[in-house]
Amino acid sequence: MVTQKLISRDNVVAIVGDPTTGITKVAAPIAQKAQVVLLSAGATGTGVVETGDYIYRDTLLDSVAIPALLDYYAKNLKFRKVAMITSDNNDYSVGMSQLFRDSAKGAGIEIVADEKIKDGDKDFSAQMTNIKAKKPDILFCSGYYTEGALLMKEARKQGIKVNMFGGDGLFSPEFIKLGGEAVEGSMSYVGFSPEQASPVTAKYIEAFKAKNNGALPGLYDAQGYDAVKLIAFAMTTSRSTDPKVFKDAIAKTKDFEGVSGAITIRNNREPIKSPLCLLEVKGGKYILKAKIPVKTD
Fold first, then answer.
1. Are residues 16 and 144 located together in one domain of the fold?
2. pTM of the predicted protein model
3. What residues make up the domain containing 10?
4. What is the pLDDT of residues 107-124, one digit of tens each?
């Protein structure tokens, strides 16, 4: 196990963890037991920081993003009726859909269809027939890009003209490759975009491009960088490299200016990040549609 080797062989005091929830949940108990700080640069699922007081993350959580996004949709895009599609054998999808249900009423949004699929399904004709009859303003898919792309191809086949949105599960070049013209106009929300960069982010982007043959940083590049800087900042402010000491400085983080956004750690050690980046598929690639402020108090 890599985590165990880093702790026992290399004697590290902090680890910038894997960006996935599953691997983070395996590594977290090992780090917690050894009293080594683990800060994930991407895990968004439940049951991560609950492992213990040495475990953190710097990601945009769905529980934070969805209320802000729905408020934007209702006020700025005037969406009122949403058809929701959940993959019921996918914990990520089930959890996000429940967050959506919990947030929709407060935003003045009605869920007119609540359809179920499974990861690996190929035929979505029945679900789309039901959705078409409800005449939604937009489709919400809480699952991943493969099913999302196939759902949109079926939607277009049935003459459904509205677009789809989802979380980072839809954010993949494969979504565009699989869906083609059918996914034009679809939207995903993520925690970072290199477009409309702040001065701090612009400086980071130029440095990243200089070291990576002109390539732009992605979400996990930016959040990984922020994780390292956040740990270093905690060590500096606490004047200690002892995890027992600087973990408490991480817990007190407020409005830390990261390259992926401003980061505040709440009392439950969960992060709030602002802004939320809403990306739209246009011309076969993801384009920033809006940067949406998230309340951090």
1. no
2. 0.87
3. 2-60+200-208+218-265
4. 999 999 999 999 999 999
